């Protein structure tokens, strides 16, 4: 046992202050329940920000972790390994792709995709074709390149000059996209549902217009499916329900159910522009992470599991809409599958975090998606009884926050 005592205050004493974590410290989890260091229990509606798709401590994943951990953890990119090759074959069999690059995170997967798109444009069209088009309120990672491509300027401010050739357009604005995508555009990167930007689904017509414009101007279409991928929307990848196939797809989060892994998927023809030594990673595609991800993909791609996501989505959405009506709290409940956003009415604008904090006190873990939206991204296999219990606890938290607001207004 490690007898070094730590608590929430320890974070402030030893960690770089880029996060402001909750007042409690999670200690263990099982399925869709979690317990903190004080023994308090929570229903987990966060899924580790859409990561623990199969819940905490899934027995099949624990088994794979032990089995692979006793064989081989790491060999470096000077060698390949069996688990990563099996994972690549499984992903390629399920998608449009026939080549994969593995990294450690969604940001790294997007970095690879953006670098590849520029490389393709350079070699096919020349040095002037460098423009990357993204969308306001988008989020693509925290590297300097990906944070610059992301459509939330606050994340790029204060770090000096950002990479050139990046344009941001309004999300779901077809005419703006058609006007902007042109001969100098090398790539368009889009989230099928903007997660951090407020859980905003793309209009299928908007995605079709992007595909058509990219084809017309020799640009690549990149789908950032870091948050929407691996079953989150009720389809293995969200693009599969849009009628649009991207040239490059990025994936992470749920791919490893919490073990850090990301991937960039693309075609043989596009992948050929990345030659030996052009891009790389030390840990990406390590056998331990790949073995776990391979089991995740096997389990989540089961049609019965994906159908279960849709059923749970309908239950969660209907109950949230009823709660919204009862308290006159939500402008809209939106999203797809088990990525759901509940936007607060104007009277509670900017107060999403207050509801998250109150929910924690009542034993339920929630996310925000900006200051006005409560975000729900639970396990894809969360029991219906846990959905019901979590929402019952949430109602108590809402009563607390709205009651306090009413009291304040009356004074």
From TrEMBL:
Alphabetical list of CDD domains matching this protein: OAT_like
InterPro entries, per the entry: Ac/SucOrn_transaminase_bac, AcOrn/SuccOrn_fam, Aminotrans_3, Aminotrans_3_PPA_site, Class-III_PLP-dep_AT, PyrdxlP-dep_Trfase, PyrdxlP-dep_Trfase_major, PyrdxlP-dep_Trfase_small
Residue positions where N6-(pyridoxal phosphate)lysine is found in the record: 253
Gene3D superfamilies registered for this protein in UniProt: Aspartate Aminotransferase, domain 1, Type I PLP-dependent aspartate aminotransferase-like (Major domain)
Substrates-to-products reaction catalysed: N(2)-acetyl-L-ornithine + 2-oxoglutarate = N-acetyl-L-glutamate 5-semialdehyde + L-glutamate
The EC number(s) this enzyme carries: 2.6.1.11
Protein name from the UniProt record: Acetylornithine aminotransferase
Source organism: Trinickia fusca
The organism's taxonomic lineage, starting at the top: Bacteria, Pseudomonadati, Pseudomonadota, Betaproteobacteria, Burkholderiales
